[in-house]
Amino acid sequence: MKDTSLPSTAGAVNKLIDSLGKLPGIGPKSAQRLAFYLMRAPEEQVLTLSDTIRSIKNQISQCRICFNVADSELCPICQNTKREANKICVVEQPQDILALEHVGVYRGYYHVLHGAISPTEGITSQNIRINELMSRLNDGQVDEVILATNPTTEGEATAMYLSRLITPLGIKVTRLARGLPFGTELEYADDVTLSRAMEGRQNF
Q1: Which of 114, 115, 125 minimizes the C-alpha distance to 161?
Q2: What is the pLDDT of residue 182?
Q3: Zinc finger (C4-type) residue ranges?
Q4: Per-residue pLDDT tens for 118-128?
Q5: How many CB atoms lie within 10 A of CB 57?
Q6: Rounded Cα distance, 174 and 148, in Å
Q7: Which residues pair with 110 in a beta bridge?
Q8: Angle CA(129)–CA(131)–CA(133) in degrees, nearest 5?
């Protein structure tokens, strides 16, 4: 990583800039602006931020059913008994759930794989939550699985693999409509595109 340290700046500030610069989407200039903002911010605000970040590591875990982020045994979605129990939407990462929930057109449950099959990176079906998904389909409650993996090479490979596993079970397998450009990650798609992709999902 490019050295972003400033010779005329205190070591503690340089350390903060370096740490912020390691966050996704934060470049050197943004890291500097955030660091100097935090220096000027009220102490209470900075301490609240610090405590919140610490609590993520200490209090946040994975839902035992869908593997979404949770601060108890089940995530809020799996706790909601009013959702449609006959549908499971499969996504790659927890942030994909946030994107789909924001659209508000899907009322079923989710399953988070925590990745996608990628032989070039050494990620196989055993490295993501596929076995757990198959176990959820054994109770006969689910009649549709929506494959909402990202429209990337890895996402498509994962969707194809899942389709081959699930179809023999007699469960309908659908894929988000092609309104999503290839190579786009779900969390960055706009609401209208996501809504149309969910409503126009097709048999896979």
Answers
A1: 125
A2: 55
A3: 63-78
A4: 999 999 999 99
A5: 7
A6: 9
A7: 89
A8: 70
The residues, ordered by sequence, that sit 6+ positions from 103 with a Cβ below 8 Å of its Cβ are 191, 194, 195, 198
Domain segments of the chain as ranges? 11-59, 82-203
102 or 7, greater pLDDT: 102
**CB hemisphere CA count around 91 (13 angstroms):** 22
Report, as an integer, the average pLDDT of 54-75: 90
Strands 144-147 and 84-91, by their bridges, are parallel
* Domain 82-203, CATH: 3.40.1360.10
Helix axes 11-21, 28-40, angle to 10 degrees: 130
The pLDDT of residue 204 is above 80 = no
What is the chain's mean pLDDT, rounded? 87
Phi then psi for 148, rounded to 5 degrees? -115, 35
For residue 71, the 8-state DSSP code is S
The pLDDT tens digits of the residues spanning 174-198 come to 998 765 555 666 776 667 667 766 7
What pLDDT digit, counting tens, does each position of 76-118 carry? 999 999 999 999 999 999 999 999 999 888 999 999 999 999 9
State which H helix or E strand residue 143 sits in. none
Beta strands in the chain (DSSP E): 61-62, 69-70, 84-91, 108-112, 144-147, 172-175, 202-203
